[in-house]
Amino acid sequence: MKKMAGGWRLLAADFLMSFMWVWSSVLNKIFVHRILGYGAHEFEGEIVRYAVSLLNMFFFTFMCKAARGGHYNPLTLLSAAISGDFSNFLFVLGARIPTQVVGSIYGVRLILDTFPGIGRGPRLSVDIAKGALTEGLLTFTIVIISLGLSRKVIYSFFMNTWISSVSKLTLHILGSDLTGGCMNPASVMGWAFANGEHITKEHLIVYWLAPIEGTLAAVWVFRILAGPKEDKTIAAKKDDTPQLKTEKLN
């Protein structure tokens, strides 16, 4: 019963956070361009927008921690589920990721009802192959960074969040002119569904298939790079234990 209640709590947190995430980018845009009055490509306006984006990522990282596992990005859940047990993998794939998608869809729907013409979401400005490569590489990079930070327990919560947020923002800027630099299939799905583009080839390949492949590749590479070191440490500890006991006996 407790496990079922915990599952429903995670689904509720995933829905709410995905809903809030799509809203956060729109509110950032409204704050910078309508309230502060900066133009679309003004340097000062871009600096303010990026600063607000960093604060926004700090806020959502704190929310994820407070929600005890809730999240707004399917790729984060997927990278963790791959290394977990099979039942958790099925729960993530069959329930949590669809819940994030539904939360994003309802979030975008409310955005368009509240602010008609506010935008159309990320747009692909290159061909499908280049777009898929871009999203795949961006996702691969951020997943590798996230996995590395999860191993570095010496860093504080603030430092981990700072490194992760700056990395995400940098990768987003690098990919913004090509694919939007999304690295979040659920939020893209929300806008694509609203525009009737959720079953197009470019959406499925660039914003779903490529990021998933990038996530799988990142987890695999990280296991190769970080796994042996951990195994050697464990083996060394096992080798040292009998020797210490022998010395004490002698």
TrEMBL record:
Keywords: Membrane, Transmembrane, Transmembrane helix, Transport
Cellular compartment(s): Membrane
Pfam families to which the protein is assigned, alphabetical: MIP
Keyword Transit peptide: no
Membrane disposition: Multi-pass membrane protein
Segments traversing the membrane: 7-27, 47-67, 88-108, 128-149, 205-226
One GO molecular-function entry: channel activity
Protein name: Probable aquaporin SIP2-1
Organism, scientific name: Sesamum indicum (Oriental sesame)
Gene from which this protein is expressed: LOC105162814
